[in-house]
Amino acid sequence: MVVQIPFNRPCLSGRELEYMGAAVMNGHSSAKGPFTADAQELLRDRLGAKDVLLTTSCTDALEMSAMLIDLEPGDVVIVPSFTFSSTATAFARQGAKLRFCDIRVPDLGLDPDHVEASMDDRVKAIVTVHYAGVASDVKRLRSIADRYGVPLIEDNAHGLFAKHNGEQLGTFGRMSTLSFHETKNFICGEGGALVLNEERDIDQAHILLDKGTNRKQFLEGQIDKYTWQGHGSSFGISDLLAAFLLAQLERAPQIMKKRRRVHANYQAMLVPHAQRLGLTLPFHHPGDTHADHMFYVLLPTAGMRSEVISSMRKQGVNPTFHYVPLHSAPGASVLADRYQDCPVTDDISARLLRLPMFNDIKLDEQEQVVESLCASVKAHSAVAG
Ligand SMILES: Cc1ncc(COP(=O)(O)O)c(C=O)c1O
């Protein structure tokens, strides 16, 4: 029987169930409980952020960031076309129109030249994604944002604890967002965080998370009852999930070490075949600390991808494609401010193939993945040739 290798297998790191049991027993399973406080403190300290608020997802953290920058009808927000829909919808929900910009090779981050050419006085924010946890050109993007007096927001769903030029990803923008969805490096099923890098956003962010109330000041004893202040929602994570997450975050060095090993194994196994098969392997900025969030290859042609995927699946290996370009998706015809060509996004998203990647994947499973990838690419190159 062929051994099935899933695309993702969520992995426990040790104390998740113990902490969740404690969260059940201590009677505070709603938002802003003790495990949430500990996880937020750990993240705040590690990132050197002004504040961190755990949310129910990265999508929710993005929605909070869109609410914090006071968008008005007619405002435009720049987002990459090569990203998940949440990066765009969060800002569109606040009434902004989206202007999609292209990515660049080799880092697959937002292309600062395209952003520069797309700026005008209607643009009120730039949102960048660090694809696969590899830094986009945050320094140049921040300097463009500063020049136009608009915030840079980092959708750092993939890059927790990665460092670029010695600085943590997620600390370059006015704020950044994290995902703890079950496919990410650190997980709790569904979860996220809003990372605040400026004091001025702290009070309003807590009001948004506390359903529009100043409950934070009440809990801190500054007022004797809390009242409704304005916009907000139920963005806070349950303490049961925060308990699971804390167990993962406490083991961050071990989890990162495992992912580094898995990534390095794939790299070493594929280097001898890449040139012959026309595969491009993932890019890393030399000297950066990487999140090793995913391992992808760029196939030589877009045409072969679905054949390669189905052939690998027949061999028990489950790879997957990733983002479908947003600038040409049906949503863009409603929510984009204007059409902008994104040829690099079109090319990369059609050729990108993600290999199974999870903390506890075994060496022989990785060998099986690489064998099936090489055989499938070879077979379909021969057919195409
Ligand atoms: C770049 C990016 N941003 C946001 C999200 C949404 O994350 P979540 O599922 O935590 O809402 C994803 C999902 O994978 C993503 O890839």
Could you characterize the architecture of this molecule?
With 385 residues, this protein is an alpha/beta fold. It folds into 2 domains: 16-251, Aspartate Aminotransferase, domain 2 (3-Layer(aba) Sandwich), CATH 3.40.640; 253-384, Aspartate Aminotransferase, domain 1 (Alpha-Beta Complex), CATH 3.90.1150.10. It has 14 helices and 11 strands. It has helices at 16-25, 34-47, 58-68, 85-92, 112-118, 138-148, 202-209, 215-219, 239-250, 252-277, 305-314, 330-335, 343-351, 363-384; strands at residues 51-55, 76-80, 97-101, 123-129, 152-155, 163-164, 167-168, 175-179, 192-196, 296-298, 352-354. Helix 4 (85-92) links the parallel strand 2 and strand 3 (97-101). Helix 11 (305-314) crosses helix 14 (363-384). The chain is globular. It starts with 15 loop residues before the first helix and ends with a helix. The model has no long low-confidence stretch (mean pLDDT 96). Residues 57-59, 83-84, 86-87, 129, 155, 157, 179, 181, 192 line the site of pyridoxal-5'-phosphate (PLP). Pyridoxal-5'-phosphate is lined by residues 57-59, 83-84, 86-87, 129, 155, 157, 179, 181, 192.
CATH superfamily of the largest domain: Type I PLP-dependent aspartate aminotransferase-like (Major domain)
How many helices does DSSP assign?
14
Instruction: Count up the domains.
Output: 2
Main sheet attributes: strand count, strand direction, barrel closure: 7 strands, mixed
CATH structural class of the largest domain? Alpha Beta
Radius of gyration: 21 Å
CATH architecture of the largest domain: 3-Layer(aba) Sandwich
What is the H/E string?
HHEHEHEHEHEEEEEHHHHEHHHEH
Shape: globular
Flag low-confidence runs: none
Number of strands: 11
The separation of the N and C termini measures: 32 Å
How would you write the strand order of the largest sheet?
1-9-8-5-4-2-3
What is the overall pLDDT average?
96
Structure ligands: pyridoxal-5'-phosphate
Helical proportion? Answer: 40-55%
